Amino acid sequence: MLPVVVVHGGAGHIPKERSDLSTSGVCSAVRSAYAVLQGGGSSMDAVVEAAMLLENNPSFNAGCGSVLNLKGEVEMDALVMDGKTLSSGAVSAVRNIANPVQLARLVMDKTSHACLTAEGASQFARSMGVPEVPQESLITEYSRMRWKKNLAPDANPVECQMGKMGTVGAVAVDTDGNVACATSTGGMLNKMEGRVGDTPCIGSGGYADNMSGAVSTTGHGEAIMKVTLARHILFHMEQGQSAEAASDLGLAHMKSRVGGLGGVVTVDPQGNWAARFSSRQMAWAAAQKGTLHYGLYTGEHFTQIIEDAH
Ligand SMILES: NC(=O)C[C@H](N)C(=O)O
Hints:
CATH superfamily: (Glycosyl)asparaginase
Structural class: alpha+beta
Number of helices: 9
Distance between the termini: 23 Å
Helix content: 25-40%
Shape: globular
Order of helices and strands: EHHEEHEHHHEEEEHHHEEEEE
Bound molecules: asparagine
């Protein structure tokens, strides 16, 4: 059963013309992360690899391709958590870097803190030699178009939000049985400047504990925070539920209690995994025992032998 890695490319409604890009993006990220695990890398190495590749892919709402805030600027959130030690690192409202997930890992590895925000996070990035990138390099035509559309007086903000949720995340178990999670996002379209979502908050955007498993979440951040979705799912696993049943229970609770939609990828330390969502779609992919699994719509589950995958 080990190793295993599962990634998501955000819960929401993916326009038809963009769905192939989302699927191919999560599949190639999961293949690279799986290669890291097969090469003896840790679950932390694997989830950071997957999240970084998805941040670099402009089809997703993380790193390059992030949605814009009300002012038309990019502010990103990211989180990593290590299930062996419960160490975590996060950044929120960070600007001008290509890979927030890498900076989150540096917060975990190099500071005694769990989260750095805004200008302080940028200063830390500089001190670690992380290159600063111009904001323009993180903005795509598509995200600028959607930002403008959402500012129009007749805009339907709910519909626009669902058009591209696109947060990215991963969970993995390595051959030593250690679990880890990573999540990275540009947040919610046309958010207020300084808005911090669920993604960098442990228990909400993700959680990893070798005693129960690991979860990375996506969806409406304010709803996810109200129910601390990731920790809620692991609670159900601690009570004996499977990764799949616990994920469904957590998502159903969020829907009935606060009307929130979203999606999750979940693993337990034995390598059982789930990719579940209450939104219309969620691009997801998993790799285990030489097989690639992936899907986009509810109930969809394709498989492919990894050696044959191109
Ligand atoms: N697309 C998402 O998953 C958005 C993210 N959860 C946020 O609220 O910032």
